[in-house]
Amino acid sequence: MLKNKFMVKRSLISAVCLGISGVSMDAGKNLPFEFVNLGTAPEMMGGNPRVNIYDRIGSTWWEEGVTAKAFVEQLSKIDNDAEIDCHISTDGGCTKEGTVMYNELIKRKGVTNTVIDGYAMSMGSAFAMAGKNSGGTTKMVNNGFLFLHKPITDMYSANATEMRARADDLDKVEAALLLPYTQASGKSDDEVRALLEGNTWMNAEEALEMGFIDEILNQEPVEASFDIKNAAAYGDIPPAFLDLYAAKADEDEGDDESGDDDDNIDNANEDESGDDDDNI
User: Taking the model in full, what pTM does it have?
Assistant: First the structure.
């Protein structure tokens, strides 16, 4: 009986969670995010004080995350007038926690720029709108994603009456969540509701076209590199992989030798020319 009461109480609390649902715990644990003051920084960071949110929003019985209490305490250490850059990659989490965090960014005197470094899913997608809605910008890397969906909840040991009541609660939570999206994009409530209903994934181009972000950040291309001389240190490596890089190493070595020959020819010509001048 006690167990059932506990589980029903848990389901009531988790009804306000969006994405990975669960009870929000404010346990003052080690922070899974960090604040970095940057002196000089790349263009996408702007050189402003930087906030990284690289975990779920809120904590559960099973998983630590970024709690609203810890977030607000850390945010208070930054000058309220300062422009900040908030970098985000999160699966989402609890709307109760995320709403507090979103509002804290919105009400700052200094603007907030949000940068989606990977995925901004569920409550994380609403949180990311704090950039545009604070007078700053919301940007996304060109291989990032936004994900919007209707609020969900876990229901344990709940009867039909309780489940119907929780459905009504979720409708209220959804209504409150419309504002960040409509304000950022200029879309109507009904348009955003349709996106939530459809479990909508948006890549960077789609998010820009729909008005949820201001700019796409292009990542620099990265070429894979591997030193074939150190292959033994990596244990079992597929022969095809070794053959690929062995061929590449031979090609690079050939280029180097060709370059050396050119240098030698140039140096020889210079020496001969110099000798003639001396003789003259």
Answer: 0.66
Residue type, 14: S
CA–CA separation, 89 and 145 (whole Å): 9
In the predicted structure, residue 138 carries a pLDDT above the cut 80: yes
Decide: 18 and 95 in contact? Cβ < 8 Å: yes
Residues 6+ apart with CB under 8 A from 238: none
All residues at 6 or more sequence positions from 148 whose CB lies less than 8 Å from its CB, including other chains: 122, 125, 181, 192, 195, 196, 199, 200, 202
Instruction: Encode pLDDT of 40-69 as tens digits.
Output: 333 344 578 999 999 999 887 777 888 999
Predicted confidence band of residue 226 (pLDDT cuts 50, 70, 90):
low
User: Distance (Å, rounded) from C-alpha 255 to C-alpha 249?
Assistant: 10
* 154-22-19-35 Cα dihedral, nearest 10 degrees: 180
Give the model confidence (pLDDT) of 145-181 as tens digits.
999 999 988 777 889 999 999 999 999 999 999 999 9
16 contacts: CB under 8 Å, gap ≥ 6: 94, 95, 96, 151, 153, 169, 173
CA distance readout (Å), 224 to 114, 221, 244, 245, 248? 29, 10, 12, 10, 11
Contacts with 78 (C-beta within 8 Å, 6 or more apart), sequence order = 35, 49, 84
Residue type at 79?
D
Confidence (pLDDT) at 252: 58
Q: Are 164 and 69 in contact (CB under 8 A)?
A: no
- The region that residue 168 occupies, defined by phi over 0 for left and psi between -120 and 50 for alpha, beta otherwise, is alpha
For residue 24, give every residue at least 6 positions away whose Cβ sits within 8 Å of its Cβ, in sequence order, or none.
Answer: 13, 17, 58, 59, 60, 67, 68, 94, 96, 97
Cα separations in angstroms, 141 against 19, 75, 119:
22, 24, 9
